[in-house]
Amino acid sequence: MKKIIQLLFFLISGNVFSQNSYTISGRVIDEYNEAVPYAIVSALSYDKSVMISQTSTDSEGNFTLKGNAETIKLIVFATGFETYEEKTPLKWDKNISLSVIKLKPLITELSGVVVSADRKKPAIKLEEGKIIFSPKESSITSGGNALEALRKTPGVLIDNSYAISILGKKGAMVFINGKSTYMQSEDLANFLKSVSVSQIKNIEVMLNPSAQYDAEGGAGIINIVLSKHNIEGTYISAGSGISYWNHLRNATDVSLQHNTEKLNINASYSHHFGYINYDYGSERKLDDKWYISSSADTDRRSSVSGNFGLDYLLNKKNTIGMNLSVNSHFGKGGIDTQNDIFDKNFNYEKTLYGQSNYFKQRNARYALSTFYAFEPSENEKYNLDIDYVFFDGLSGVNQPNWHKDLGGNRIANDVFLADSNRKVHIFAIAFHQKFPLWKGNWLSGIKFSQVSSNNISDFFTVLPSGNLLNVNRSNTFDYKERLLAGYLQYAIRINEKLSAEVGIRSEYTFSLGKLFPRQGSNQKYQENKRNYINFFPSASLTYQKDEKIAYSLNYSSRIARPAYQDLSPFILALDGLSDWVGNPFLEPQKTYKISGSGTWGNTTAILSYAYTNDFSGQITEKQPNERVIMIPRNIGYQNHFSASILQEIRWSSWYKMHINPSLFYVRNSFQIENYASFSPSKWTFSCNSQHQFQLPWKLTGEINADYTTKQIANVNEISKPSGGIDIGLQRSFWENQLSVAFSFTDIFHTRRWDSESHLPNLDNYIWGYAESRQVKFYVTYKLGKQSSKTAHQSDLEEADRL
């Protein structure tokens, strides 16, 4: 009997394969127009329902069936959806390209209660060693900006100076669509404030980036992937909303995308209008006196951004494209500061009042990107990218200061004016290639970039007769940096379960900084030239036991070059008693990191250790005349250990939770004068959790909570515990075309940046908080006609590029 069955199978197979074979291709999406991966697609004979061909969709929802028949019917099955069956008979005597197949969510009625399958995309997931956060899937981030979304990203912490850390280690580099922004700290924060959450597809957190990525960023890379639809047709999305606590704010965004078989055009506009408050201060004990400061800061700046992109498919193998974007953060602002001065017995002596009236502020970024992509096959790609970025920043601030004695009489009255202008030109060109080699894939590339910065700072004393330039506090600082990088990387699947990847990256850096003092100044011309070459090896080993269990081991080395603003030696007055000054002798930091991870179903654990030499940070130093300065210095080295868990728990069909507890240890070892006795260290626990509920009346509820214990914030500064709770509600109408979201962020107003630091004869206690408690309401409307999948999706959105 067994031989007869084998013979029949052979005869049938021979008959089938002797006939002409055709294909049916298409794409399966859900009600949100998102891809449905791993759906089962079957072709059955129309009259007898005999299986002819079967396959499953890939991660993008695409499928291809092979075979032929007189007439067939298609059936699509996917978990959480109603089974799709094509009623109209389809004649399969040629290659067929279908329109998209949209599946409906599965709805079940139990004892009068309607339960709909949860098809909302997970806001948090882990893929290929990356922590991926989708802010658009959270009602709490609706109407927000990219900086707010980063604060909600698991494992990411942002302090009050906008320094970004990953699992407690500072020095994260932020990329947009796989490319460096070439910005740090406040400039980066202003740029991110101008990027609407609606423009963001995913935020990817990479602890150990491979050699194909820029080596910059000691803590790792945060890649913000902007949205781009890959469905043919015209798609329009518009959203607007308000937020309120101390001030009323408006956020609005509009996006348009038109796709044809060969052309992809996308455009977007967004703005954020309204004021926001910050309150902060310090208690400083310097020698035998106390200085108690408090400031009320109102930021009146607005953010506006625009984007236009075009991809054109020359043919099936060649694509060209360009993207033009403008981001601007501009407006006025005001800071009122009061410094009360006491003697060592806490007897009041006098009060110093100060104001910072910003009459102009602008941080604008203009970027033009072009690319050419050649893809002779699915596994072979060649990319050429050319980018130009122009950054234009300026500020003007009027600073009146006065003293009052015990009787409330003014004993001094000075008015200063600071005017600064900064222009940065960035040019980059990169070539990247990927092709099969032996049993694996070979990746290599080369990149050249140049940064030219011109910084003008003028400081005036305001007199009745006019403004008098203070030549000793005014100067011009020019900085140029050229970088030539190349990398080699090889990835191979050793067997069905084991894969490996090794790479090496080399970067040659040349930098030149020049300080030009004003005529008559006691400052001197300074020039600081550097050139150096570094090598950055990386390696990873992955064992995939089965679909649910996997283990990986990763190693990489990274670099953190000084921000060019930190290399300028000019003095910036912060208030009447403290200054910030740059350091032209800062050295780059080198970080060596090893990490391991394990995934068991919905649970992932990550262990990581990093060692950083020439570790740098901002320290506070005493100066004559009751003043202190804050200056960045290379202080020694740092050891950093972290352990983190990503866990998804689905308690029921209507409630799921993501939780991310982390434990990290930081030890800073000083090797500079007056700090030798300090080696601050601290264990820190941090936890972020997200809870999503399917509620009656088709509402989706969300609760986010985060908490961080004491941690080393900056060199020897210990920040105090902080955290908060956000809640949100969201509902969709008209087949998900209209979405309404309501949220209440930081409901107990507990997200603060309190800290303390101690040095000989200098104790500093800092406190502060922002207008993080807000009530938000946001409405989004989507309109579009999608008919079929595009023939090509540009590599601009892919991460495997320079």
UniProtKB/TrEMBL annotation:
Residues 378-781 form the Outer membrane protein beta-barrel domain. The keyword Secreted does not apply. InterPro entries: Beta-barrel_TonB_sf, CarboxyPept-like_regulatory, OMP_b-brl_3, Plug_dom_sf. Residues 1-18 form the signal peptide. Keywords: Cell outer membrane, Membrane, Receptor, Signal. It is found in: Cell outer membrane. GO terms for cellular component: cell outer membrane. Its main location: membrane. It comes from the Bacteria. Pfam families: CarboxypepD_reg, OMP_b-brl_3. The keyword Ribonucleoprotein does not apply. This is TonB-dependent receptor.
